[in-house]
Write a structure and sequence with these properties.
Length: 376
């Protein structure tokens, strides 16, 4: 049997012990993948919200620390009069106020309803696939394609939102799952529904061609920074940045915990494996195997176990997260699986394999052949 074949087969000679080790590390890997996908999804969702329709930047109210805001961005609403003020800033081509509300509809308590003037829907980058746009002076909405499928609704149906009846005038598609799982209505209608007349959640801003975005945002911050905040990325929103930092910290802590606990588990597994194969290792040394070859074999076996844990843990993480999405536990948030998440998971798995396998491998490589052959 070749050296490589030994590395791949030896870890599974005691199947029960190998399975327990794989499950232990796999749970940590699954958690890393799930948290990473949630963080990436949250980042993508917020970034697309802030730059809807190709807007150059957004303007929000100050961070609301009261914990009572209904704004998903965690900021307070502010007067819609700021829209005309921003439109008059030098370098601004167009500004549109929107109201983002979390409402309840049949079968979902967390449904995103966005209010915007119908003449400003270019900011939302909507493509109507059925029906017509809502009217500003009527209780009408357009539904995203995904939400229409989930709610089994189509044009001319009615939808109850927070106890009020709205007529569905159109179905839209944006290509962004987060928007396609929500609905749009007129700004005034959403303000009234949220009992927040005259206020908005944010302003989308486009600047004139050739104008430096940073200079425009600086002008706005200098003149009106006491009341509103310019947002060019999600890191500019304290609440969201804090939430992402929290999830990233949790992911790092779990990675560290996985390395420590997984490393201890692998040390135990590989030490037992070395004990049981002491005579076998003695034979290999007697036929000419060098200590570094024994070291490489045991380390290789350790890494095979942890990489297998990485594969299984990644699958469990993705499947578990998709089940939560299907059950609606994550609301409208869609997890995003990036190569970085899986690279991070497999990097942790390999580090666990190296850390956990190092001592047993060193110990096996130091065994004297004669003593190993006498081992009972």
């Amino acid at each position: 049997m070749s050296f490589i074949s030994l590395i791949f087969k030896n870890p599974f000679r005691n199947k029960s012990r190998a399975i327990l080790a794989i499950i232990g590390i796999g749970i940590g890997i699954a958690t890393i993948v799930a948290l990473g996908a949630i963080t990436a999804g949250l980042t993508s969702t917020m970034d697309e919200t802030l730059h809807a329709g190709g807007s150059d930047f957004s303007i929000s109210g100050k961070t609301d620390n009261s914990g009572t805001t209904t704004n998903p961005l965690g900021t307070s609403t502010f007067s819609e009069n700021w829209t005309s003020t921003i439109n008059n800033v030098s370098g601004v081509k167009n500004a549109a106020g929107v109201y983002i509300g979390m409402v309840s509809v049949p079968d979902s308590r967390f449904f995103t309803l966005i209010g915007i003037d119908s003449k400003d829907t270019d900011f939302a980058d909507l493509k109507l696939t059925k029906g017509t746009m809502f009217k500003n002076d009527a209780d009408e909405i357009i539904l995203g394609k995904i939400s229409a499928d989930k709610l089994n609704k189509t044009v001319n149906d009615n939808l109850e939102i927070n106890g009020e009846e709205y007529k569905i005038t159109g179905i839209f598609e944006t290509g962004d799952p987060n928007q396609d799982e929500g609905a749009y209505s007129s700004l005034k209608s959403v303000q009234d529904l949220m009992d927040d007349a005259g206020n908005i959640s944010m302003i989308y801003v486009k600047v004139d061609s050739g104008v430096d975005v940073d200079s425009v945002t600086k002008t706005i911050e200098d003149d009106y920074g006491d009341n509103i905040t310019t947002v060019t990325s999600i890191s500019d929103i304290e609440t969201i940045a804090n939430a992402l930092d929290m999830v990233n910290s949790a992911s790092f802590a779990i990675s560290l915990l996985a390395i420590i606990i997984g490393g201890i588990g692998i040390i135990n597994t590989m030490i037992m494996s070395v004990y049981e194969r002491t005579r076998e290792i003695g034979v290999l040394k007697a036929v000419g195997w060098k200590g570094r070859r024994i070291l490489g074999m045991i380390l290789g076996e350790s890494i095979v176990l942890t990489v297998t844990s990485g594969v299984i843990g990644s699958i469990i993480g993705v499947v578990g997260l998709e089940i939560l999405v299907a059950l609606g536990v994550l609301g409208s948030m869609t997890p995003m699986y990036t190569p970085y998440i899986f690279l991070q998971a497999f990097a942790v798995a390999i580090v666990v394999g190296l850390v956990g396998g190092l001592y047993p491998a060193w110990r096996a490589s130091r065994l004297p052949p004669t003593e190993a052959l006498r081992y009972e």
